[in-house]
Sequence to fold (134 residues):
Amino acid sequence: MSLISRRSLSLVVGCVLIATGWSGHAVAGSTETAREGTLTRIAASQSRDTNNRNVRVHNQTGLTMVGLQASSGSGWTGDLLGSSGLGAGRSVVVAIDDGTGACRYSLRARFDNGETLERGGINSCQIADYYFTR
Fold:
């Protein structure tokens, strides 16, 4: 392969990675970006409407959240937290969007003690913050 074609290939691969939102972090079903000390996870499939479905999830349970999933009724999404979890008293911005255009979701959180909490009727198009409590 010539030097010119290698550079062309590198440029194409770089453009594809940028266009798909790849940030160098491997998180199933999401892309992570860091902004001003906060962690943001953006869902891989996003609806094509103009609704903002980014919600800051606050963990006020006293336990470490090890998993978070959303469902609009058509099955649960992948883990929105990835492998990092969410410590007690911490928060993270997640895009609660499965690509269907739905706004109402149920959230299911798993904790390090094996406990699971489910909450329904959450409108990700209208709220900016959601607080998990026990």
Summary: The chain has one helix and eight strands. Residues 3-19 form the longest helix (17 residues). The longest strand covers residues 104-111. Confidence is low (pLDDT under 50) at residues 1-44.
